[in-house]
Amino acid sequence: MSTKTNTNNVIKLRKNPNSISVDINNSTAKDFKPRANDTYLRDKTLSGFYIKVRPNGKKTYCVQARPFGIKKNKSKTIGDCNVFSAKDARELATDYIQRIRTGKSLTPDLPEAEEISIESLVDRYVVVRELKERTIRDYKTELARHMPVLSRKNITDITIDDVEDWWIKKEKIKTTRKRVFATARAITEYARVKYKLDHNVFMSFNKLIGQIKAPPPIERHIEINDMESWLASFVGIARPSEAFIDKTKLTKTPQYIENKDQYHYFNNPKHPIDYRSRITETQRDYLLFLLVTGKRSGEASWLEWSDIDDVNSGDGTKIKTITIHKEKTKNGKVDVIPMTMLTWHMLRYRFNHPNKHPKWVFPNKYGNNHITRTTKSNEKIIKSAGLAYDISPHDFRRTFANFLRHYGIAEEDVAIHLNHTRTNVTASYTKASLEYKLDNLEKLERLMLDHIRGWMMHYWYDAEEGWVSDPSEEEFKKQYYYAKDFG
């Protein structure tokens, strides 16, 4: 008995219009024009070897094969068509296809199960390089913050397209982008040599777009003529102490100079007097500490209460100091900072605050670590001040140095305050050297902050009202610095 087939019910499969059979050579990718969807130019000779063409014009050599001919297809990207020649790509494709079909690893001398990623290699890389603890922290922090996906991805699976997409996404932070890219490139090169990988995808991207040069040195700082505007904005946005808020009931504008009309912030109806909505006390104190000490943001953010010391002077009194230990400084040298009137009042206020963190002088808003970012606070201050340039926490360090030079401090002494000195600085400062540094810092604060310094000590740090007039250094030492316990 014969059966007649109804051809009307037969579904005819149409070939995929985006999959084209070609002879892949050096001109194949160059001559093919992108389409609305991804297109696959499949080689007629080597089955599994193809060029993937994206709608944006990106063209990449790839391979695809089935392990043992029965399992699910496994793909591997070879690289950008502008980086690899067709001959080199075909040789790699032949090897990859053979490895996939026989179940071998695509990374020779690397166990199949082992996943190598930038994140997993950081710990090995920094040990080999013998990097400093601070540099290691920066590597891990920046990779986690700015390259979270790629840094966790298997290095052998990262494509030129992946790197390009990341590069475009980070357009707004060009300097940081270059730094993170350089870190990823170095770690991937370490992996390439160690595990005999075919190539470094970050090196290939570097070649594709041209040599990525180091950014020029930044010389940005708050200009001396702009300091008054910046301070007015800073004071207007920062929170006074809780005692001052309660006393004024959120209605009184701080009167820190006789003629407040020159400070546009206090006369702007867009900024109602609501101190509780301003930047936090910790953000306020951290920024001010950076400004008047010239310390790096990382050095200040890692400051602990155990770093606050008393150093014996020659006459039996004690000079209160802040010690940044060598494992927290960039150059690996201890930095000892004598407290000025302002920093003494600031730290005493924070030390006695009911919400004081048990470890960190400047904790983050969650209370589980030290402060890390002040971006939003900086933006508020700059916008209100009307500055024509941006200011980062590290720019406070340049501002500090610029004011020291303006005051007439010799360049070698500026280097000491910045801890750039070649001499190994230890906690065994003599009274003269500590008092010399203290004298410079006091004079710097008077030049930089002028009339507002005493106001800050009273309205921010609960000093007695007489401090608004900013007493002399000798009066301060006599009544507070030497006489009273810090806590």
The count of helical stretches stands at 18
Which percent range describes the beta-strand content?
5-15%
Mean pLDDT equals 78
Number of strands: 8
- The residue ranges in which pLDDT falls below 50 over 5 or more consecutive positions are 1-14, 249-276, 423-432, 480-484
Describe the protein's topology.
Blueprint: E1 19-22, H1 28-31, E2 39-43, E3 49-53, E4 59-65, E5 74-80, H2 86-101, H3 118-129, H4 133-146, H5 160-169, H6 174-195, H7 201-209, H8 227-237, H9 242-248, H10 281-293, H11 297-301, E6 308-312, E7 318-324, E8 335-338, H12 341-351, H13 375-385, H14 393-407, H15 411-417, H16 431-449, H17 452-459, H18 473-481
Question: Would you give an account of this structure?
Answer:
Helix 1 links the parallel strand 1 and strand 2. The strands form two sheets. The chain has a five-stranded mixed sheet, covered by helices on one side. A three-stranded antiparallel sheet has the order 6-7-8. The N terminus is likely disordered. Helices cover 42% and strands 9% of the residues. Helix 3 packs across helix 6, helix 8 crosses helix 13 and helix 10 packs parallel to helix 14. The chain is of the alpha+beta class and 487 residues long. It starts with 18 loop residues before the first strand and ends in a 6-residue tail after the last helix.
